[in-house]
Amino acid sequence: MAELRWRTAGESHGSALVALVEGLPRGLAVDIAQLDAALARRQRGYGRGRRMQIEADHVEVLAGLKRGVTLGSPVALLVRNRDERIHEYRSFSRPRPGHADLAGALKYGTRDCADIMERASARETAARTAAGALAAQFLAACGIEVLGMTTAVGGVALPAESGLPGALRRLVEAAALGSAASNEAAALAAVDAARAARDTLGGTFLVEAFGVPAGIGSCMQWDQRLDGRLGQALLSIPGIKGVEIGAGFACASLSGRDCHDPITLDDAGIQRAANRAGGIEGGMSNGATIVLRAAMKPIPSIPQGLASIDLVTGSASTADFERSDVCSVPAASVVGEAMVALELARALLEIAPSDRLEDVSAFVAGLRTRDATFPRGLPPSGTGDSSPSDR
C-alpha cells in the first residue's frame, strides 16, 4: 500500500494555495461540495476578521480524479486567493511578539517581516482544510467520522451536549462559535468585550474520531505511535500551545486506580467503563472514541501593538499591526479536524492490504468484526500463542 503523504504550497497574498495528496486509494467518489463546506466552516466563526469577508474559498481539483472518482494517483487541490497582492504588499520591520516575524527574520536574514508572514500566516491552513476534508471522505467510506468543535473561548467554557456524531455535527455547524454547547451567549459576550478593548482571545477545542478500530498506530517505534503523531498534527496548527489526549493533564493528579479504564467482556464484546485514555493506549487505538483537546493562544496581532524593536533602525518601537481576528478558535477546530483526519487516514493506510477503496473498506469492516469477537475468536488455549501464564 502506498504511503499517504501531503504537502501544501502558497502564500497568504499569493495567487492561490495548493495541496497535493498522494496515496489515497482508487475508487473514492469525491464530493467537492463537502470540501467547500469544510472551507466555509473554517471561514466562519464569531470573532473572525475582514480577510474572511474578502475570501470565498472554493476547491478546484487539478489532478487525481476521473469523473469525480480517485484514480489512485496524486490529487492536486487549488484554493484561489481573492486578496492577491503579494508583490504590492507593504514591508514592515517591527516584529510582532508571538508571531513568526522575528524568528523568521533571524533565520532567513531579512528585515522585512512581510516575507515571513506570507507563509507563516494561518491562511495556509485553508489548503490543509481542503486536504483534510478529502481524507475525511475516505475515512467516512470506512465508517470513521472525525469532528472538531470549540470547547472554550477566553476562559468561558462551552461544554458539548451529548449525542451521536451526526447530531453533534449539526449543532457545531449551526453554532456561531462552532461549539456543541446549548448556550454560547457568555462566550459571544467575551468576544465582543475583547473587540471593544482592541484585544484578542484564545480558547480550546475538541476533536473526536468515532468508529476507529483497535490497532491503528504501533508501539514498535517511537515515530509510529498514534498519540505522538496526532499530537504533532495538532501542534502544527498556528497558535496551538498544548494538546492532551483523553483525560490528559488531569491524569497527573489521579491515582493509577482512578486513572485507567477497566476492561470487561460481555456479549457485545470488550467494554470500557470510561475513556480516560482517549481511545489510545500504548501508541495504538484501542477501539474507543479517540478524544483530543488543543489549547490555542490569543492571536498576537493586537491593534494597539506590543513592545518591539525596529529591525531597520534598531530602536525600541511598537509592533506593527496587521488585520486579524479577535478570536479564531472556531477556525482552528476545523483545521484540527482536518489534521486528525489526515493523520488517521495515513495510519490506517499503513496497515491496509490494497490500493483499492473497496478492499480497504472491507479490511476495516474485518477489524471491527475482530474487535467485536475478540478474544472468543482466538484458537483454544494451547493451539495458538501462549498466554503469559503459559510461559
The tally of beta strands, per DSSP, is 17
Structural class: alpha+beta
Number of domains: 1
Question: How many strands, which pairing sense, and closed or not: the largest β-sheet?
Answer: 5 strands, antiparallel
Number of helices: 11
Q: Determine the CATH superfamily.
A: Chorismate synthase AroC
**Spans where pLDDT lies below 50 across 5 or more residues:** 386-391
The coarse silhouette is globular
Per CATH, what is the topology?
Chorismate synthase, AroC fold
CATH class: Alpha Beta
Helix fraction, binned, reads 25-40%
Arithmetic mean pLDDT: 93
Please write the string of helix (H) and strand (E) elements: EEHHEEEEHHHEEHHEHEHEEEEEEEHH
Radius of gyration: 23 Å
Arrangement of strands in the largest sheet = 8-7-9-15-10
Question: For the terminal residues, how far apart are their CA atoms?
Answer: 36 Å
Strand fraction: 15-25%
In CATH, the architecture is 4-Layer Sandwich
SSE order and pairing:
Elements: E1 5-9, E2 16-22, H1 32-43, H2 51-54, E3 59-63, E4 65-66, E5 69-70, E6 75-80, H3 101-108, H4 113-120, H5 125-141, E7 145-153, E8 156-157, H6 165-174, H7 185-196, E9 203-210, H8 226-235, E10 240-245, H9 256-259, E11 263-266, E12 269-272, E13 280-281, E14 284-285, E15 290-296, E16 307-309, E17 316-318, H10 329-351, H11 357-373
Antiparallel strand pairs: 1-2, 2-6, 3-6, 4-5, 7-8, 7-9, 9-15, 10-15, 11-12, 13-14, 16-17
